[in-house]
Design a protein that fits this description.
210 residues; alpha/beta; 10 helices; 5 strands; 16% strand; globular
């Protein structure tokens, strides 16, 4: 525990700093959470969700996993989406990947690491479906960057196909699913212009990516 004492020191300084700027913040936060956004991102330590968009605790509901995948059999991710949509009533779901993603790079190169290979199989399948587009990009780093983008777009599509999101749209809820990507090199987000606000938009994306 002593080896980690510096983390407790940092925590105390962080809590004191928040309280100085926002008096009563934690007492209010403890009573409720009402975020407008669900962030589905990568587990990479260099991509801290709240900090990237400058939001305080309580303003962003977050789910993270290796390579920001949204898979129809991942009950962890699906449970997060259900809670965010059905209970928290978020208005925006943001699937955010990042350039230089280690998971995407590993899948692209065909490396074998063990258990995680089964998880990254989804990216390898995506790579195969877009083989012609990726092959037309001569620079390997740019091909990997494009695969990172395609992975986000696939995630947006999969979010839109969940029963929770489909039900929200049928009920007329103002729920929008977005696809963004983050650059480690400059700290900036980029909008991939994939924004789904209804079933028609989701169907159009599915047709364009089949």
């Amino acid at each position: 525990m002593r080896d980690l004492e510096h983390l407790f020191d940092k925590n105390r300084k962080w809590a004191e700093g928040i309280s100085q700027v926002h008096p009563g913040f934690f007492s209010q936060l403890s009573e409720q959470q009402a975020p407008e956004y669900l962030w589905i991102g990568c587990a990479d330590s260099r991509v801290p969700a709240n900090e990237i968009v400058g939001l305080l605790p309580g303003e962003l509901f977050v789910h993270r996993n290796v390579a920001n995948l949204v898979i129809h059999t991942d009950f962890n991710c699906l449970s997060v989406i259900e809670y965010a949509v059905s209970v928290l009533k978020v208005r925006h779901i943001i699937v955010c990947g990042h350039y230089g993603c280690g998971g995407v790079r590993t899948a692209f190169g065909g490396s074998r690491l063990g258990l995680i290979d089964n998880w990254l199989r989804h990216i390898r399948d995506l790579q195969e479906r877009h083989r012609a587009e990726l092959a037309a990009i001569h620079d390997e780093e740019q091909r990997i960057d494009r695969l990172c983008e395609l992975n986000v777009i696939a995630g947006v599509r999969h979010v839109s196909q969940t029963t929770m999101v489909e039900s929200a749209w049928r009920e007329g809820r103002g729920l929008v699913v977005h696809g963004w990507i983050y650059s480690l090199k400059d700290g900036l987000l980029r909008d991939l212009r994939v924004d789904l606000a209804n079933q028609a938009a989701a169907d159009a994306l599915q047709q364009s990516t089949d």
